[in-house]
Amino acid sequence: MKDKLAISSKAYLFIIFFILYAPIFYLVYYSFNSGGTMSNFEGFTLDWYKELFGDTRLLIIVLNTFVIALLSALVSTIIGVLGAIWIHSIKQRQTQNTLLSLNNVLIVSPDVIIGASFLILLTMAGIKLGFYSVLLSHIAFSIPIVVLMVLPKLKEMSPSLIDAARDLGASQWQVLTKVIIPYITPGIFAGFFMALTYSFDDFAVTFFVTGNGFSTLSVEIYSLARRGISLNINALSTLLFIFTMLLVVGYYFIAQRGNTRGLGVRK
Question: Residue 263: pLDDT band by 50, 70, 90 thresholds?
Answer without folding.
Answer: very low
